[in-house]
Amino acid sequence: MSNDNKSIHEFDINLICEYFSGLERQGPGSPDVTIKALSFIDGLTDESRIADIGCGTGGQTMVLAQHTPGKITGIDLFQGFIDSFNNNAALLNLQGRVKGVTGSMENIPFLEEELDLIWSEGAIYNIGFERGVNEWKRFIKTGGFIVVTEASWFTENRPVEIDTFWKGAYPEIDTIPVKIAQLQKAGYISVAVFILPEYCWTENFYVQQIPLQEKFIAKHSGNKMAENLVAYQRMEAQLYDRYKEYYGYAFYIGKKI
Q: What phi and psi values does residue 255 have, to the nearest 5 degrees?
């Protein structure tokens, strides 16, 4: 199978975890856009409960904790990410109200209407946007919020190469109006939607991987899966450079009604 029609999910999860553990964020983003998204949320207090689902090592979670009150639980499937998450919280002296736990976004460990805010940057695709906003809704209090980033088309028509790639990698990718309609149908008011700037993908994600890639290949010399993982990430970066006007991440911010 060529890298053109692989999905990231086809690589060994331990290799994926090791590779992305070296990055502050495991997907496109920045502190600035996290803070911008947070600016649309109101009503949080020291008693608020927040969950960051698919938190990775907690790059965005730590920003949240530094700019909002409440207790935050980060959830990720990879123990290695959670270990780094909790270490990062301790380094910032946030361990008293920020805690990472290993778990699946398909079965998050909360009671119904326990949460004031669900956050998920670059991760909801693992369960699917429509399924995620519907299934997670029951854990959010009435008047609470959901905030996610989702891969989205910016145009109705795209070049064949990028259309084929994304439909293979994430068949649920769709236009922003379709995603807003899915959010509303799930029972949320669409509070705000905005597109992540280009630098969130380039300087903050793809460029950050470059110094790690040769070290990763050297460490796993002869491991074809490791080599293919790096090749896949390099191909993704090239595709983004060619077709960034057609797609990217958008923040979707909804309020449960």
A: -115, 125
Nearest-angstrom CA–CA distance, 9 and 56: 15
Q: For residues 126 and 3, what is the distance between their CA atoms, to the nearest angstrom?
A: 20
Report the largest interatomic distance among the alpha carbons of the chain, rounded to a whole angstrom: 54
For residues 98 and 34, give the distance between their C-alpha atoms in angstroms, rounded to a whole number.
17
Residue 218 has, within 13 A of its CA and on its CB side, a CA count of: 5
How far does Cα 234 stand from its chain's mean position?
19
Tens of pLDDT, residue by residue over 194-246, are: 999 999 999 999 999 999 999 999 999 999 999 999 999 999 999 999 999 99
- Judged by phi (left if over 0) then psi (alpha if -120 to 50, else beta), residue 233 lies in alpha
Cα separations in angstroms, 91 against 58, 62, 96, 98: 12, 10, 12, 12
Among candidate residues 25, 26, 23, the one with its CA nearest the CA of residue 63: 25
Q: Please name which of 74, 64, 70, 65 lies closest in space to residue 33, comparing C-alpha atoms.
A: 64
Residue 174 sits at φ, ψ, to 5 deg, of -155, 180
- Domain layout of the chain by residue ranges: 3-256
Spatial separation of the C-alpha atoms in residues 76 and 245, rounded to whole Å: 31
Architecture of 3-256 per CATH? 3-Layer(aba) Sandwich (3.40)
Position of tokens 């496109």? 28
Q: pLDDT tens for residues 72-112?
A: 999 999 999 999 999 999 999 999 999 999 999 999 999 99
Alpha-carbon span 127 to 48, nearest angstrom: 25
